[in-house]
Amino acid sequence: MPPPTWYVDFFTELPNEFWRRAVPPEVTVEEIDFVEQRLGLAPRSAVLDVPCGSGRHSLELARRGHRVTGVDLSAEAIGHARRAAAGLDVEFVHADMREIPRHGGFDAAVCLGNSFGYLELDGLREFAAALGGAVRPGGGLVVDFASAAESILPGYRAEPRTMTTGDITVLATGEYDVPGSRVLSRYRFTRGGEELDVTAIHHVYTVAQVVDLLSGNGFTDVELFGGPGGEPYGVGAGRLLLTARRTG
């Protein structure tokens, strides 16, 4: 069984490189279009991207002229993001997602890529409080969460799947841990003679729990979408995109 802090050691070069290759650029563009449009971002907005991974959203926001701070715990991912950021107005910080600046100076915060479920409930409470402290009154928030109970549980089936991008192949298997209300995702990454076995945990929370955590930290006007196209979220949707506004 992986430790609760599985994410500390999971995101090394091989998994990170797989996901860098696996997401087409047009997906990132569509996601940032959603952020700009739904939050009504003004030019040169100060945006917090947490956790930012290898920086694909941070870099796209910076290319559009925003002032971006990306925070992530993976030293490898932060190093990659910094190398890719030459000439852009973006700062990458190596830190835990709960250790973000709480100065209330960000016009918006985004938590994309399904990382909202990495933390146990106490940790998620800390993260929600940190987001509330980071975003100014009137600022916006976007949360991307594929592990909402309303998404995961209807017809849940854990079937092995194989994914390949370039010379990296991944065998993924899943298991729903009922007592823990979480999904255990086991991955075997292979590249040439290199092989890596790692397990990720995605904690499953209801939409009501997520909304309650955020509203308790000053976020209101919550809207729920099933994807960046703006479709409504419903039971069985594969993904939740939540937007909210920080009150005064």
Automatic annotation (TrEMBL):
MF terms (GO), sorted A to Z: methyltransferase activity
CDD domains, sorted: AdoMet_MTases (cd02440)
InterPro entries linked: Methyltransf_25, SAM-dependent_MTases_sf
Domain Methyltransferase: 47-139
Protein's UniProt keywords contain S-adenosyl-L-methionine: yes
Keywords: Methyltransferase, S-adenosyl-L-methionine, Transferase
Tagged with keyword Lyase: no
Pfam short name (any one): Methyltransf_25
Any single GO BP term: methylation
Name of the protein: Class I SAM-dependent methyltransferase
